[in-house]
Every structure is written in C-alpha cells, then in structure tokens.
Amino acid sequence: MTISTPDLTDAAPQARAIELQFTNYGALSQFAGAAVTIKCHEDNSLVKACVGEPGEGRVIVVDGGGSLRRALLGDMLAEKAVENGWAGLVIHGAIRDVDEIGKTRLGVQALGTTPLKTEKLGMGQRDVPVSFGGVTIHPGDYIYADNNGVIVSGEPLL
Predict the structure, then answer these.
(1) pLDDT at residue 1, rounded to an integer
(2) From which residue to which does the signal peptide run (predicted)?
C-alpha cells in the first residue's frame, strides 16, 4: 500500500493535518491504521504495555506533551511493536536508539531524540482523546503518515 498524505488530503478535505514537524525514524516511511491513544509525560509505562499487546495493524499515538527530556520509545519497545503487529507510532515527544529503530520494520514519527530513558511509574492515560499540533485525536481515528506529515481522519481514507 502506498500512502501519500498530500493526495489523501486533496481527495478528503475533512482530513486534518497535525501541524508539527515530525521526523520519520522507522524503516517504514509510510504507515497507516486505527489509533490507540496514550497520554503520558516522561513515563513510557503505558507505551511498554501497549506494544506488548496484539497491534492488528493499528497505530499508537503518544501525547508526551512535546517533552524532549526523556525518550518514550527505544529499540526494544520498537522491536516488540513489530513482533506484535503494530503499524507504527506517532510520538509527540522524543525517542532514543534511532540507529536501531531505523532498521526496524515499523513506522515511527517523533519530534526528536534524547539518550535518556524514562522512569517507569505507571503514570498516564490510555484510550483518551489527545490534542497536539492543532488536532484532537480520538481512539479509533485513522492515522496516515509519510515523509510529508501525519494526518487524522474519523473515517478510513484508503
């Protein structure tokens, strides 16, 4: 499946573009799927739990508050996401282990990188609406990502 977010937004003007400059870090430069949402701040406990579940081609959307102080995804969690069938992650925050993640057959869009891991305190919320970059993403919304950006739709576009 080829994804072009510009073509999708041309064909479906109701699609909303996240107004942030994400960088593509995964080996897959294009990915799409239904959203599973996580809201957390410098604690990736819920991300770790989520990637351990069957992904079924879905996309994990993590609202880390835009923090670049602690990484919400590393190589081991990315590998676990691939093993369990997740299409990708969109992270409003930082990741680490970028060289290894770049070899992982997973879509990963994030704001930036840091070498520091998070504390695992079990903090955060899952399956709640998250808002960043001018867009609110609800669990079950459809996410489409490529090197042009990330778009969100309440209904499938492909």
Answers:
(1) 72
(2) none
Say if 155 falls within a structural domain.
Answer: no
Using DSSP's 3-state secondary structure scheme, residue 10 falls into: helix
Does residue 85 form part of some domain? yes
Backbone angles phi, psi at 9, to 5 degrees: -70, -30
User: What pTM, to 2 d.p., does this model score?
Assistant: 0.97
64 close to 93: Cβ distance less than 8 angstroms: yes
Q: Is 58 annotated as a binding residue?
A: no
pLDDT class of 139 with cuts at 50, 70, 90: very high
Average pLDDT of the segment spanning 122-136: 97
Res 65: pLDDT: 98
On whether residue 48 sits in a domain, the answer given is yes
Confirm or deny that 97 is annotated as ligand binding.
yes
Residue 76 in marked binding region? yes
Query: Per the annotation, does 57 bind a ligand?
Result: no
Q: Does 1 show up as a binding residue in the annotation?
A: no
**How many domains does the structure of the chain reveal?**
1
In a domain, 156, yes or no: no
Q: Which domain holds residue 120?
A: 5-13+22-150
CB distance 146 to 5 below 8 Å: yes
Q: Is 75 annotated as a binding residue?
A: yes
Judge whether residue 158 has pLDDT over 90.
no
